[in-house]
Amino acid sequence: MADSTPTTLFSTYEQDFHHIIQSLKTKLETKNIEQGSGGVEQRKAILRSVDVELDDADDIVGQLELEIQGIPNSIKPQYASRLKQVKLDLAKYKKAAKDLQTQVSRTELLLRSNPSASAAGQTSGASDDPYTDRARLLTGHQMLNDGSRRLADSTSLALRTEEMGADILRTLRGQRETIEHAHDTVGNAEINIDRASGTLKGMISRMYQQRVIMGLILAFFITLVIVILYFKFRR
């Protein structure tokens, strides 16, 4: 089973990013493209491929920002430094792509003002078309494989997130049942306390009644003794 810890996924995405950066470097630093219209078409094709790879690189940076949230704080600074470098590299090649776009636009403008150069460029660039098509095919195949693997990683991450959410829901449900049970227990305790309070009040009332009765009996006997003694001494 593949390791899907945040640090491992971070390193995997980082490796994918560097692979894309190497491809961008190869495309953007090409020096031997002809300046004619054939060269312009090749550069347009390169720019289209570069745009796709830059979008992929942006997606990877988003994944890196997501994975770094799950990395322990004790080692997070080194990964944050790597993420910062990744963003710097991406910004660098975005600027290089923008510069190439500006160069292509300038060349197109010059070719429109000089048709003879355009015709010469078409002749010189025709022989390079098969190689360009093969390069596009290989690049597209590689990007498809990378995209499929990133999709599988994203699916795995979504499944792990869903499982964590299910665990949280189960925990919350258990806590709710505990609270409801505690509430019922407290309600029963209040009922028992009320019953006990009523019983104690009844016992106290009966105790006072018994004291009054005993006092009356005692007073009766005292009175009886006094009456007996009175009649006895009177005789």
Task: Give your account of this protein's structure.
The chain has 235 residues and is mainly α. It has one domain (6-179). Helix content is 89%, strand content 0%. The chain is built from five helices and no strands. The chain has helices spanning 6-28, 37-68, 76-113, 115-125, 129-234. The longest helix has 106 residues, at 129-234. It is rod-shaped. 13% of the residues are buried. Mean pLDDT is 79; it is low at 117-132. This is Vesicle transport v-snare protein vti1.
Helix content: over 70%
Give the domain tally: 1
Please give the largest β-sheet.
Answer: none
DSSP summary: helix tally: 5
* Number of DSSP E strands: 0
Order of helices and strands: HHHHH
Q: Judging from the principal axes of the Cα atoms, what is the shape?
A: rod-shaped
Name the poorly predicted regions: 117-132
Q: What is Rg?
A: 45 Å
Protein name: Vesicle transport v-snare protein vti1
Organism: Pluteus cervinus
Question: Would you summarize the structure shown here?
Answer:
The protein is an all-alpha fold.
Secondary structure topology:
Layout: H1 6-28, H2 37-68, H3 76-113, H4 115-125, H5 129-234
Please supply descriptive tags for the structure shown above.
235 residues; mainly alpha; rod-shaped
